[in-house]
Amino acid sequence: MSTPTTALPxxxxxxxxxxxxxxxxxxxLAVMLLLLAAIGLSVxxxxxxxxxxxxxxxxxxxxLGFFVMLLCAQVPPEIYRALAPWFYGxxxxxxVAVLLLxxxxxxxxxxxxLGVRFQPSELMKLAMPLCIAxxxxxxxxxxRFFVVLGTLAMIGVPSLLIVVQPDLGTGMLVVCAGVFALYxxxxxxxxxxxxxxxxxxxxxxxxxxxxxxxxxxVLTFLSPETDPLGAGYHITQSKIAIGSGGLFGKGWMNxxxxxxxxxxxxxxxxxFAVYGEEFGMLGIVLLLLLYLAIVGRxxxxxxxxxxxxxxxxxxxxxxxxxxxxFINMGMVLGLLPVVGVPLPxxxxxxxxxxxxxxxxxxxxxxxxxxxxISN
Length: 375
Known about the structure:
Layout: H1 16-23, H2 27-47, H3 52-74, H4 77-101, E1 103-105, E2 108-113, E3 117-118, H5 120-137, H6 145-163, H7 168-184, H8 189-201, H9 203-209, H10 212-222, H11 233-244, H12 271-304, H13 308-332, H14 351-368
Antiparallel strand pairs: 1-2, 2-3
């Protein structure tokens, strides 16, 4: 049996890796996330019409988010597993409180003011994979039929509470976060295909349950040219912006669609169109590679996880982050309906930034709290 050796002070083995390990930070993830945040601030400065106040506000939110990430990285995965059901239950109660007491804005009731104004649905993006991973950890895998039914009920209740706010985009992300954890738990493709088939059968009653503006978004997605100055205006202008960027783009702060205010929501949902116009196809490819590298690192951490809970949680967090990117880019390019999903760590936002970075803190906790196993 071999015994682990400890490097002496001043030896070559003592370096940044030691300090990072003590801080429970994953170097690869930390560097890539900081790079992504820097890109987000630079694009936001251009998209906001050179608003220093907006950039400073976003930088403060990044600072808070990275601080929360550092705190989350210190917590051992075993504590997350023990607290997961309580976190899930409290978040469901907060979602109910939103429907009863939440602040209403633009016809939607999504915010709760408890001294600090926040969006409980963002917390559910973390609570959902945590709770599903903890629930499946204590059961034999692949999950049996009734375990799957119970898991789907746990996914469905909070998702429905979010959809009726209404917030279809976040509700969809919460559903997928739970389903991803279930998939990593061994839920086979045949069940996933059957689930999509069931969703297809429910399409007509779901269509009737949608709000008018949600139905209009779907119709606009199918044919934005029918109303280019009305419902199809966002998609039409975003395509013009990205197309005009060409291969190398017009250069930072040289885009015209956002600067001349042709592109609505240029600093939030449609900031990717600003990026595409200024940095072109080459910039888009590099940004996509950075996103894929972050997702890949998350999946590597999942593959190295030492128990079922850690593996399911890490895999679900990584794939949910990828889904953020896929949905936002897809809707800006006109490949998906507009559902109000921000581009992670690029779009202007507060609660979403903190919740995303908290999730990466959990990934770092899984990576850095691995126990040494000697042979």
